[in-house]
Structure formats: C-alpha cells, structure tokens
C-alpha cells in the first residue's frame, strides 16, 4: 500500500474515534448549540428592535451573521480538543503507534465538520422559526451551507496549530474567545459596514468574516433590495473572496500544523 493510502486510512480511523468521542459527550453538543441560539434570540428580539435595515427584516439580515459567528466558535473546538489530548497524554500514546503524523490532525478537523453539520442544522431551524427565509434556489442554498462548512474547516486548522502550542485547553479557549469575538463584530455580520468609522470599515471590508457573510447572504438570497454590494473587490465578489481566504488559510496552516505536530511529538 502507498504512503498516501496508509495516511488516508489512519485519518479515517482518527475521524471515527473523535466522532464516537463527541457522541458520548452530549454536553459538547448541547453547549455548542445553546450559545448560538442565545445570541440569535438576543440580537433578534433585543438589539433588533433598535436596528433598522432598509428594505428587509433585521432578523433575516442577522441569521447569516449568527451562522458565521457559530462556525468561528465551533472551529475553536479543534484546538481545544488537541490541547486537551496533549494535556492528558493521548498524543504521546498516538506517537507510539505506527500511524501517519498527519492522521491526528486530519481526524480531529474532519470529525469537527460532522459536529458543524449538526450545529448548522439546529441554527437553521432556529433562524426559520424567528423569521429567516432562504430566497434562492436549492443548489445556491446548498452552496451557501457548503461555504460555511469549508470556512469552519479552514479556521479549525488555525486553531489546531495554536492548540499544539497551548499551555492548557482552558487558556486556549479563553484566548480564542477574545480573538474570535472582535473578528465577528468588526464585520458585516450584524450591521452594514457603511456606518462604521473609517478605520473599522476598511478592516471590515477586507475581513474574511465579511467575505463569508456577504457570500452566504448572496447564495441564500438575503441581500436587502437596493443594497447591492459596492466597494473594494472582496465586497463586490464575496463568494470568490471567501474561497480565496479558505484556500490561503489551508495552504498556510495545514503544513504548519503538521510540522508543529511532528516537532511536538519528537521532543
């Protein structure tokens, strides 16, 4: 068997291991979905009453932003899971097995895609219940959900690289929260970027989160009437910009994560 086939088999085995682990820890599923539902209800019924988006219901504008925020949040589970495995000594046990060095990381990031599928399903139902509607075709909507999953998968490789160097899963979780929240709020996730101060508007327009949200709104048919995207290239081409960001992140952080993992286990 070729090295690639062996590595693929190892990755599948690790993916299965992590999925079984998540299924046996239902508190992970509950808390992963509870916070986004709380955010959706809070913004829709509290802040939404004071925010006016001309030509559309704010709740419809909001839900894609909540979905993007949720994907960022769940992506941190990858890094936290790796940091926890390192703390518990499981990484040392994996090192003693005849397996590909990339299998642990591939298994962890791939299994989290399954978790994200569940989270997206729960959040989509929540959105539909509070007023969100998909106004595009089935294939466009499917592409929108696929874009969310791809983005979460890419971000999970960033958190994997960070998790390999974390002192503890608790410290990583807190630090990632402080990093992810500004990324979401300095974007078009919850409000249009036109009203932001100049510096923040420029950051938001070039943010990968803004590209993701803009691309998904376009694919779901949630762009408010009369608000055709205009501005820098990522604003006018959000789907392509999102795919470009995803490609750049994967090209940088997959090799970096594998190299850091190899370096860590060989210490």
Descriptive notes:
- This protein is mainly alpha-helical and 267 residues long.
- It has helices at 3-23, 26-45, 58-88, 90-95, 103-130, 138-163, 169-185, 198-205, 208-220, 233-236, 238-265.
Content of β-strand: under 5%
The residue-averaged pLDDT reads 83
Output the radius of gyration: 19 Å
From the N-terminal CA to the C-terminal CA, the straight-line distance is: 29 Å
Order of helices and strands: HHHHHHHHHHH
Helix share bin: over 70%
Q: Total number of β-strand segments?
A: 0
Low-pLDDT segments, ≥5 res: none
Shape: elongated
The total of helices stands at 11
Category by helix and strand content:
mainly alpha
Sheet bearing the most strands, described? none
Q: In the residues, how many domains can be counted? A: 1
What is the structure about, briefly put?
The chain is mainly α and 267 residues long. It has one domain. It has helices at residues 3-23, 26-45, 58-88, 90-95, 103-130, 138-163, 169-185, 198-205, 208-220, 233-236, 238-265.
Secondary-structure blueprint of this entry?
Elements (H helix, E strand, L loop, with lengths): L2 H21 L2 H20 L12 H31 L1 H6 L7 H28 L7 H26 L5 H17 L12 H8 L2 H13 L12 H4 L1 H28 L2
Which terms summarize this structure?
267 residues; mainly alpha; 76% helix
